[in-house]
Each structure stands twice: as structure tokens, then as C-alpha cells.
Sequence to fold (608 residues):
Amino acid sequence: MAYHEQYSRYVGMVEETIEKLLPQTREDLPREDGIIPAHLCEAMRYSLLAGGKRVRPVLLLAACEMLGGELEQAKVPAAALEMIHTYSLIHDDLPGMDDDDYRRGRLTNHKVYGVGQAILAGDGLLNYAYECLLDHAAAHPENLRGLVLAAQAIASRAGVSGMIAGQSIDLLSEHMQPDAGRLAYIHAHKTADLLTAPLLAAACIAGADEAQTEALLRFGRCMGLAFQIDDDLLDVEGDAGQLGKQTGMDAQRGKMTWPSLVGVQASREKSRALWDEAERAIAVFGECAWFMQAFAQQLRGRKK
Amino acid sequence: MAYHEQYSRYVGMVEETIEKLLPQTREDLPREDGIIPAHLCEAMRYSLLAGGKRVRPVLLLAACEMLGGELEQAKVPAAALEMIHTYSLIHDDLPGMDDDDYRRGRLTNHKVYGVGQAILAGDGLLNYAYECLLDHAAAHPENLRGLVLAAQAIASRAGVSGMIAGQSIDLLSEHMQPDAGRLAYIHAHKTADLLTAPLLAAACIAGADEAQTEALLRFGRCMGLAFQIDDDLLDVEGDAGQLGKQTGMDAQRGKMTWPSLVGVQASREKSRALWDEAERAIAVFGECAWFMQAFAQQLRGRKK
Fold:
């Protein structure tokens, strides 16, 4: 199967699973237990179904299939991970955080539903991710332990020593003097942790051994850091004329970036080295890794 | 053992467990994995250790002991539930929600740490609750299924068809015409769901049968609704002179309350009937329920 077909197949699975887990409801005051009020449900779906490449859930499904795990068992964890990614975007866009009005050309959640409901839609997606993960684990006694460990891998990477730690330090560092240690910490946690999460979760579901898990972790970490450097590079190249002095800050947002810290050339070299390492890490899986290799190459060559 | 001693014993267990799960860290850029950045950790602890009666975790521990379950297994779920309760208070106090500057006589989280960090401290506590629940389940293979079901019970009551649903409808209903169905929904979910959660979680940990679980659920539900009506009554009695017309709204907050909807007398009767039903529900456990009976009587007689 060609790469793009396979990617679409995975995206189809993710979106079908999301639709099953979170269908639009009708009543604002549901009479039965377990039904989400319509307005809250709509706000959650608005951001969860806003498109996007579904990078994280696709990685989870692809890694699970590569390892010979049960794809059926991986669908709910994949959808849950996308809920977690989405809640983090809703909260990131809020006033007091990045205060953005638009994301991917659409109004941000709080611009449509108000700040209060957007906070709750984010909280709701985060909590619902775990609700789904736990329901799913309880419904699969044949792999209860594997699914609990997968949920645990997601929780630890998404949490206060993972993604949330990265967001907190990022926010705390605005308008600070740039510093490579700080920037590396932010990228490792704010970005890379949610890319290693699906790989580790897949390893737990499929019962991968330690060497396989280690290789996946290295693949995800390198890819996550390279992805972030490329993002910064694309920004610089996009407004090269406007950048002016290289102060170690993203001019518009007051945030640190690699190009502004070590220069464009060194950033390009670092990115190249990281992508090479990611490809070497995944190579241990041989031909089974064809999709992962293609996935990395695709991300590596991306344009804004 | 006397009631107050027993209560203090449970509170001691909760606070000791919180301290173990969430000790203050030192570095803002931790070098090791799994360490929470100091500033984020401090913001989480600020609200989690702000005192409070620890009603929900105490209920969990007491119900577990009443059912003959392993108290050791109940401590982490109890602390996790308190993290969830605390995150909901931090987010409730934010601008765009209730926009409060003080809670229990102390500055609210966002007044001390800023809105962005308070959002993240709330997200962090919510995510960390599940991280702890999952770590704990994985560490107890002898009762893995019971602990997963306990976490599931907490997740479903805390979530988008539970507490968050109640918060969302509450927010949506501000300045609306009062309506008994709406008010009952808000109280059942915003308040009662987080009081049934510990009882159901304890039932899962202890492996209670269906009849026991049903009795605990009824106890929690009645107590939760009665608690909320009493809260409204205490508010009315507190500012009886200021209430003016009975519009179905809490004068200050633009929120619906029972006394303003059905009158003070009918609210008192409803509260009495609910407390009586709660006491009948828990009576099926006989003498083992002494603490729960005393607990309900204590809440019933509380003053502002």
C-alpha cells in the first residue's frame, strides 16, 4: 500500500473512533446518565474535529501495527491522545495564555463559545480522554495490563513533568533572556513528549520488549525536537525580511527559538542530525518500519 | 474511636498521601525525567494544600474501611479525587468563569500565579490525578481490575456527563429564567457527582456487591443534593435582609437557588427529606456505618 493511502486509512480510523466516542448530542439537560450536554459537546467537537493532520494518533496506530499489536485495541487510545492534544490547543489559545483569535484559519474555541465554556471544553476533553482510556481498558480484560500501561504512558507524557511542564516553563520564559537549556526543555516537553507518548502507548499495547521500546522512544524524541526546530526555521524563512536583529526571541511572540539563539545555519545542521538519528533509530524494525520511515521523511520535507 | 478522632485520622492519611505524591520540587528546569518544575508544583500545592475539610477523600477512605476493603489501596484514589476537586475550584475562580479574587480568605490561584499558570496548575492537577490513579493501578496487580474500575467511576463522575456538565450548564444558565429541572441538573452534577464518586470508587476497590453499591450511590446522591440546598439556605439566612425580591436567582451572582425558586420553607422540607433518605440508605450497613451516619449528621447540622 502506498504511503498516502495508508495515512488516510489511519486518519479514517481516528475520525471514526472520535465520532463513536463523541457523537453530537441533542439536549442541554440530558435526562439519562452518561450523556454530554449539547452545548458542551458541540464546543468539544468544534476543536476536536477542526481538521489537523492527526499526527499523534496516526503514530500510535502505525506503531501498533508495526509491532504486530491489535489495531482494534489501539483506536481508542489514539482518539484519546488526540483529545489531549486538542485540549492543550484550546487552553493555549486562551487569554492569559497565548490569547489567539484564530487557529488554522478558524476562530478559536473561546472566540466562539466564550472563555468559560472554552475552559470547560478543554477540561472536558482532558477528562474524557481518561474516561475513554479507562472504559476501554475495563472492556478488554484480555489485555487489561497493557492498556493500563498505555494510558499511564500517555498520562505521564501529557502531564506535569511532560507537556504541561513544557507549557508552564514556556509561559514563564516569555521576555526572558534566551538560554539553550531552557529552550531544549521547552521543546522536549511541550512538543516531543506528545510525540513519544503514542509510540510508548503502542509499545505497551503490543507488548514490545525493552529494546524495541527504547528505539521507538529515540525515534519520537529526535523527531519531536527536529520538528520544532524546523517550525522555527520555517517561521524565520517566512518573515526573513522582518526578523531584524537576532535577539534569541521570536519577534512577534516574545518567545525563544533555535534560529534566533544559535543562528539559521546551526539550526539547520541540528535539524539534519536529528532527522538522521530518528531514521537510524526506526531502522531496527526493518521492512515493517516502511510507514514510519516514510512518515519521518514526509515531516522532514514539510513546508509551511 | 470517637467521630472527630476518626475524621482526623482520615484527613491525616489524605494529607500524608498528597505530600508523598506531590512534594515541593526545587528546580524550574528539572534535569531528570518525572520531576515537576518548581513553579508549577508550587502553584498546584498552593491550592491543594489550602485546607478545606477533605470531604470527598474522607468519604472514600471511610467507605472503603466500612466495606472491609484495603485502606492502603484507597489512599491514592482519595488523594487523586482531592486533586480533581481542587482543579475544579482553580478553574471555577478564573476570569471568564466566576472571576473570584478570594477563596477561603486566601487569594485565588490566578491572583497569585497569573491566569496562564493557574490554567496550567488546574490542568496539571487534573492530569496528575489520572497519572497517580494509573501508576497506582499498575503497581497493584493483585487488584488491578478493582482499581481501574475505581478510576473509571471517578472519571465518569468528574467528567463531561458529570461535574463538568454541571459546571457548563451552570455557566450557561446565568441570568436565565429560573427552572427547577435546570437547577436539579446543576446540583446533581456540579455537586452530587463528586460526592458519589468516592463512594463508588470505594465500592470498586473493596469489591462491593450490587446492592451495597446501590445503597452507597443513594446515600451520596441524597447527601449531595441536601448539602447544596442547605448551602443556598445558609446564604439566604445570612443575607436575609438583603435578598429583596425572590426572583429565583442568587442576588449577588445571578445564579439560581432552591430558596429563591420554591421558597425557604419548601427548601427546608426538601433538605430534611433528603437527609432522612440518606440516613436510611446507609443504615443497611448496620453498625459498620457508624462513621458514615455521624458524617451525615455532622454535615446536616453545619453552620456557615
User: Anything to note?
Assistant: The radius of gyration of chain B is 19 Å. Residues 210-238 of chain B form the longest helix (29 residues).
